[in-house]
Specification:
The protein has about 625 residues and is mainly beta. The chain is about 5% helix and about 40% strand. The protein has 4 domains: about 150 residues, Immunoglobulin-like (Sandwich); about 120 residues, Immunoglobulin-like, CATH 2.60.40; about 100 residues, Immunoglobulin-like; about 220 residues, no CATH class. A hairpin with a 2-residue loop joins β14 and β15. It is rod-shaped. It comes from Bacteroides xylanisolvens.
């Protein structure tokens, strides 16, 4: 605004003065006119500048007894001094830069002092103005006059930018969010209203260097946020920093530091006025969290966004997109637990208003029968921030059709004999059938296969004639401990001698009642299944099984008398109903080529004695797995 327009507004305000104003003891019939005295303004400078030129173009408004006494334009002489007449006890309001924003008929000092400006004055920055208030206490102004110095304060703060710390840092855009839309002309450290405004500056080419007065901002008692978007080398960056408060008449220099190791925005307050240093930087203590708005996750998947946990149903999920919003791209540093059933895609990146959006796709196959629940972890890293790591955990529910188990004798046992490591190949009760129902009515479907010690592949002689002593030329694992050789499904293993001894103590006569190794009372009974035994090759026998029941818990483990097959036997008849032979995992104390097995050798009788017996490793016996 130029000098002539300010004079015009001063004239308008002068028109609002009360009638009859005059000087030195003149009176009207209605009111005694206040005495006025000479005030010399030694100079009007800008507060906080180490050196500044005196201001030549300032309006002054004088209020006395709550009313506007005088408004005038200052005309400093060659020495920078101005003379005005003032009333003792009055207040002088000095203003430059925004007289056009003032109301034209304000006569009350309270209205004048609480004047709010801002609407219609923003041009991608707050409008610049300066103001000061001087109170002439009663008795200060004397007949001989007095001298005062006026230090004007800018009504805005200034934001400068400095990116010279690292030449790889290029800034494309700066955005100011939550800046005050209004402020008081003369009142400091008070919020004028809740209205806010945003500013945006785009650089014609990626900027690296120093730039003063990128923005001007009204003072704010609430946080103001500044977002910088750009690149570090070829990597996009987005830095959001916060000024907790913004004070007028201060310069805030935003310096971007150390981007290659840790993005840090450092706000330093410089003259105009000195002040504290405010640090603005990403909070590396915060997690890299899933974005609910940017991720695409089917409704059947349960998501804990606070902890980055996804719960996938046993039916699996075709494809979902996991997305993260951050200041810099997020990368996948490693994966844990990923198998053939889970596919984790490569990560992609896009720049959006909220920040850098990093995303990758995940698909999970449906669980097979008996598959245990499992978890996959995708480990994440912020590409440019040292020490900023996190992970997403994908938890897949167990199969609806689970392996049946029995806890007895101090261990958890599979309810049926093993067939292979494949979960889909295990024995499961028919729909609606209990475990004992299967042994009683479908005995041949409960007995599993026969295995050589230390080897993985089963032999089912009653399904087809095969005299081979080593199916598939397997290498034996002795002792039988490696998962790669063990015909137990995931989460299970071959029992040890001690575990068998706890449940089936050698020398114990059965059927009978006895104590297991853990102190449980076990009731052992012999049973026979219903119907006629039918096999594909015509092998016959009795469908016997032994039931071991805990008297305390009523839980029972059933072992079918499926028989066994010697290593040089050519017959495909294992001796159904005569005995049960069950491998242990150990061969300690056995001669070469032998391992331990536990026997229930009824051999057609109604009673027997449990045996712990050495058996040729090339022989074929049953495997009953115990939980790891």
């Amino acid at each position: 605004m130029n000098y002539s327009s300010r004079k015009a507004i001063v004239s308008i305000l002068m028109g609002a003065l009360f009638l009859g104003s005059c000087s030195n003891n003149e009176q009207t019939e209605e009111k005694v006119i206040q005495q006025t005295y000479s005030v010399t303004l030694k100079g009007i400078t800008v507060s906080g500048e180490e050196s500044s030129e005196e201001l030549k173009d300032v309006s002054v408004f004088q209020f006395s007894d709550g009313g506007l006494y005088k408004a005038e334009q200052l005309n400093p002489g060659k020495d920078g001094q101005s003379e005005i007449s003032a009333v003792s006890g009055s207040r002088l309001y000095f203003l430059t830069g925004l007289e056009e924003a003032m109301g034209e008929n304000v006569t009350s000092e309270e209205e004048f002092r609480n004047m709010v400006i801002g609407e219609g004055l923003h041009d991608n920055s707050a409008p610049s103005f300066m103001a000061a208030v001087v109170e002439l206490e009663s008795g200060v102004v004397t007949r001989g006059g007095t001298e005062i110095n006026v230090a004007m304060k800018r009504g805005v703060a200034r934001i400068d930018l400095n990116t010279t710390a690292d030449s790889k840092t290029k800034i494309k855009e700066i955005i100011v969010e939550d800046a005050p839309a209004e402020t008081f002309l003369f009142i400091e450290n008070k919020q004028a209203s809740d209205k806010t405004v945003n500013y945006r500056k785009e650089f014609g080419s990626d900027f690296n260097g120093e730039q003063k007065e990128v923005f001007r901002i009204f003072e704010s008692m609430r946080p103001v946020h500044i977002v910088l978007r750009g690149t570090y080398g070829e990597v996009p960056i987005r830095l959001k920093v916060e000024l907790p408060v913004v004070e007028r008449n201060k310069v805030y220099e935003l310096t971007v530091l150390n981007v290659g190791a840790k993005i840090e925005g450092n706000f330093t307050i410089k003259p105009w006025e000195e002040g504290e240093t405010i640090i603005g930087k990403p909070d590396t203590n915060h997690r890299i969290l899933l974005s609910a708005s940017k991720s695409k996750i089917p409704g059947e998947v349960k998501v804990n966004y606070e902890n980055n946990i996804l719960e996938i149903p046993a039916t699996g999920v075709g494809e979902m997109t996991l997305a993260f919003v951050s200041d810099t791209p997020i990368g996948i540093s490693s994966t844990e637990g990923v198998g053939d059933d889970v596919n984790v895609g490569s990560i992609s990146m896009s720049e959006e208003a909220e920040g850098i959006v990093s995303a990758f796709n995940v698909s999970v196959n449906a669980q097979g029968n008996g598959r245990l629940g499992y978890a996959v972890r995708v480990h994440l890293k912020n590409v440019l921030l040292d020490g900023t790591y996190d992970y997403v955990e994908i938890r897949v529910a167990p199969s609806d059709k689970q392996i049946e188990t029995v806890e007895i004798g101090g261990n958890v046992w599979m309810a049926f004999n093993a067939r292979s490591r494949d979960l889909d190949d295990q024995i499961y009760p028919l729909d609606g059938a209990a475990i004992e129902d299967m042994y009683r009515t479908s005995w041949i479907n409960t007995v599993g296969g026969l295995f050589q010690s230390g080897r993985l592949y089963m032999y089912v002689p009653w399904q087809g004639y095969n005299p081979s002593n080593n199916l598939g030329n397997q290498v034996a694992d002795t002792p039988w401990q490696k998962d790669t050789h063990m015909p137990c499904p995931e989460g299970y293993r071959i029992p040890t001698v001690a575990e068998w001894q706890s449940l089936l103590p050698a020398g114990q006569e059965i059927p009978s009642t006895y104590k297991a190794g853990n102190g449980e009372t076990i009731i052992a009974t012999l049973h026979v299944g219903e119907g006629k035994l039918i096999t594909p090759t015509g092998v016959t026998g009795t469908q016997h099984y032994v039931k071991f029941t805990s008297e305390e818990t009523k839980r029972c483990l059933i072992i079918p008398l499926v028989g066994g097959k010697g290593d040089k036997t050519t017959s495909n008849n294992p001796g159904f109903g005569k005995r049960a032979v069950l491998w242990a995992s150990e061969r300690n104390g056995c001669p070469g080529g032998y391992a331990w097995a536990y026997w229930l050798p009824f051999e057609g009788a109604e009673r027997t004695t449990i045996k712990k017996q050495q058996l040729q490793m090339e022989a074929f016996a049953s495997v009953r797995c115990v939980k790891k």
